Amino acid sequence: MAHETVMGRGQDQRKQQQTTKWYVHAYLYADDLGTLPVGKDVLDCLQFGGKRNYGYGEVVLKETQIVDLDALDYSQLDNADAYLIKLVTPFVLESDYPDDSDQSVPWWWEEERADLRERVEKVVEQREVYRLQTVDHGQVVSYEGNRPVETAKNSILRVGSRSKYGFGELRVKPVEPRSDHCSDLKETNSVG
Length: 192
Known about the structure:
The chain has helices at residues 40-43, 75-78, 148-157, 180-191; strands at 4-8, 17-21, 83-87, 91-95, 118-125, 128-135, 140-143, 170-174. It has 192 residues and is α+β, with helices and mostly antiparallel strands. The protein folds into 2 domains: 4-54, no CATH class; 70-174, Immunoglobulin-like (Sandwich). Strands 7-3-8 form a 3-stranded antiparallel sheet. A 3-stranded antiparallel sheet has the order 4-6-5, with no helix packed on it. The protein has a two-stranded antiparallel sheet with strand order 1-2. It is globular and about 55 Å long. The chain starts with a strand and ends with a helix. Residues 181-186 and 188-192 have low confidence and may be disordered.
């Protein structure tokens, strides 16, 4: 991957090329807080991916932010009656990766398992391609557990196998109770 891509256009068009810059958003976790944030000097001269010997894959640190999960305000989760979980990245169920165990979905969305979209992903490591059977991201399921704050913290750190590759990131959201106004509108519309 190049840090910017030049896309060609036809000769008869006004602008013959367009440049697109790519930004990669990454979460880093460390048990030793002294290792974070990563300094700009750590990434100097690093290049990733194929063709890096030809100048591709240059990495430049744009911005760093440290977030202490224990210091965040979880009060909106404390008093809700119901919760939804949104799958931000795919959740790995099965993998061809060596010494990796298959995993079922968390118990609190097992009832909705039949309705979930699945897809096949691939992980490439040292030129070896490994197939991953995943639950597709973007889906929303109900959360039946009784520990929403702990689940929210864990879900940011990602859950399940292959989490170190970014799989299994979730978001916990409280379900807002319907206001009396919405209930009144529903009754009015059903009567009329």
